[in-house]
């Protein structure tokens, strides 16, 4: 393992059990939603106090296209470019929702197929022009994977230095769901039969399982899984989760793509999961399997396969409610 990454992982401590216990005792006298009380308890452990200050919230969206040399790449990144331009200009739906809850939005290009100019809401940290198709070769080289991961680490460190205390994770890019599945499945080796039944794609599953076996990866090798089957956005999101846990920031994630990053970060450092909160439950089978593996219960229900951090931003509003519950 890279020495800098090993140092980062070693610096991550568990959430504060004493503060969580004080909060849990406090919540026994509170009438209302027990799940919100549980969220407040987790937040107390993250912030190391049963009376946390109002959160300073940020939304971090990593943009990357996937499998750009694969046969499914018909748009050549045009759709993701249009989505990125909308968010970078402040016109996106996520911008409007984030504004209402007092959260800033930062969009970062770590792997879009197209090139866009930087602007106040858009930074270029491009590692590659889209990940490669894992059916032919590794999605990233080791250096590309680590460059993307440490880009995420630096973003989280910068936000912590600026006083942010809660981060919503998001992704933007084409063909990301299959990469999320390919990263997720090796961590679910004991439950692949369930996943196979959920997707109704037994033949396809057999072919994909052959790719994992050919690469020689399993759930004990999270960095290799990320390199062979991930993409720059998933790697960068993994870095954000790890660095945020080190700096004791709360992290909200939403869909199967951000969930793949959470699974990877948890495989690298189980303590990192103390700082992570799910927002929405998605109909996507991969997301449901991620929630089972993580033992997490999302608060919100959605029928969408949303990206661009929409679910995570809604989750930030629940953190605000938890802080208010603790304060009052």
From TrEMBL:
<comment type="similarity">
    <text>Belongs to the CobT family.</text>
</comment>
<keyword id="KW-0328">Glycosyltransferase</keyword>
<keyword id="KW-0808">Transferase</keyword>
<dbReference type="GO" id="GO:0009236">
    <property type="term" value="P:cobalamin biosynthetic process"/>
</dbReference>
<dbReference type="InterPro" id="IPR003200">
    <property type="entry name" value="Nict_dMeBzImd_PRibTrfase"/>
</dbReference>
<comment type="pathway">
    <text>Nucleoside biosynthesis; alpha-ribazole biosynthesis; alpha-ribazole from 5,6-dimethylbenzimidazole: step 1/2.</text>
</comment>
<dbReference type="InterPro" id="IPR023195">
    <property type="entry name" value="Nict_dMeBzImd_PRibTrfase_N"/>
</dbReference>
<dbReference type="Pfam" id="PF02277">
    <property type="entry name" value="DBI_PRT"/>
</dbReference>
<keyword id="KW-0169">Cobalamin biosynthesis</keyword>
<protein>
    <recommendedName>
        <fullName>Nicotinate-nucleotide--dimethylbenzimidazole phosphoribosyltransferase</fullName>
        <ecNumber>2.4.2.21</ecNumber>
    </recommendedName>
</protein>
<dbReference type="InterPro" id="IPR036087">
    <property type="entry name" value="Nict_dMeBzImd_PRibTrfase_sf"/>
</dbReference>
<dbReference type="GO" id="GO:0008939">
    <property type="term" value="F:nicotinate-nucleotide-dimethylbenzimidazole phosphoribosyltransferase activity"/>
</dbReference>
């Amino acid at each position: 393992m890279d020495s800098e990454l090993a140092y980062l992982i070693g610096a991550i401590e568990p959430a504060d059990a004493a503060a969580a216990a004080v909060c849990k005792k406090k919540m026994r006298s509170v009438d209302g939603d027990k799940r919100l009380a549980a969220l407040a308890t987790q937040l107390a452990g993250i912030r190391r106090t049963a009376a946390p200050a109002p959160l300073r919230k940020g939304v971090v969206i990593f943009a990357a296209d996937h499998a750009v040399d694969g046969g499914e790449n018909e748009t050549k990144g045009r759709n993701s470019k249009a989505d990125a331009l909308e968010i970078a200009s402040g016109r996106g739906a996520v911008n409007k929702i984030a504004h209402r809850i007092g959260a800033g939005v930062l969009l970062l290009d770590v792997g879009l197929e197209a090139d866009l100019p930087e602007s106040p809401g858009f930074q270029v940290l491009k590692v590659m022009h889209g990940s490669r198709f894992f059916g032919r070769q590794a999605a990233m080289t080791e250096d590309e994977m680590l460059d993307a991961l440490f880009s995420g680490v630096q973003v989280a460190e910068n936000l912590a230095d600026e006083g942010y205390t809660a981060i919503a994770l998001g992704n933007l890019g084409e063909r990301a769901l299959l990469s999320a599945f390919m990263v997720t499945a090796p961590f679910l080796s004991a439950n692949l039969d369930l996943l196979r039944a959920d997707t109704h794609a037994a033949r396809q599953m057999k072919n994909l399982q052959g790719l994992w076996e050919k690469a020689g990866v399993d759930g004990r090798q999270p960095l290799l899984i990320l390199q062979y089957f991930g993409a720059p956005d998933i790697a960068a999101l993994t870095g954000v989760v790890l660095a945020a846990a080190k700096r004791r920031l709360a992290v909200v994630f939403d869909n199967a793509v951000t969930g793949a990053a959470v699974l990877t970060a948890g495989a690298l450092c189980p303590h990192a999961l103390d700082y992570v909160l799910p927002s929405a439950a998605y109909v996507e089978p991969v997301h449901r399997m991620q929630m089972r593996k993580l033992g997490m219960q999302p608060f919100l229900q959605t029928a969408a396969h949303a990206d661009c951090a929409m679910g995570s931003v809604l989750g930030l509003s629940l953190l605000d409610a938890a802080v208010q519950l603790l304060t009052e």
